[in-house]
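Retro notes, structure queue

What went well: the backlog is down to a handful. What didn't: a couple of records were mislabeled last round, so from now on we paste the full input next to the output in the thread. Example, using Major facilitator superfamily (MFS) profile domain-containing protein from Nonomuraea insulae:
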Amino acid sequence: MAAATADVPEGDAGTIGGLANTASQVGGSIGLAVLASAAGARAAEAGGASPAALSAGYDLVFLMAAGLGLAIAAVSLLLPARASR
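Corresponding output:
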């Protein structure tokens, strides 16, 4: 949120903050849907609802989530630091 509202005029900070919060919520929902779809597809490829198939689906999802987390951490290092006022 600090990066989203860093250089916004005071009059627009509430609007931009609300937009950033909405984007965060929608992004999380879409991300969860993508991960659940990937897990279901991998489980279906591995044989359906057996424990081994479900484990294969979860294995893929945890790897995807770890990669996404690392990518987010790398991008966050590129964000400008907020100057103290």
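Agreed that this is the format going forward. Reviewer comment attached to the example: The chain has one domain: 13-76.
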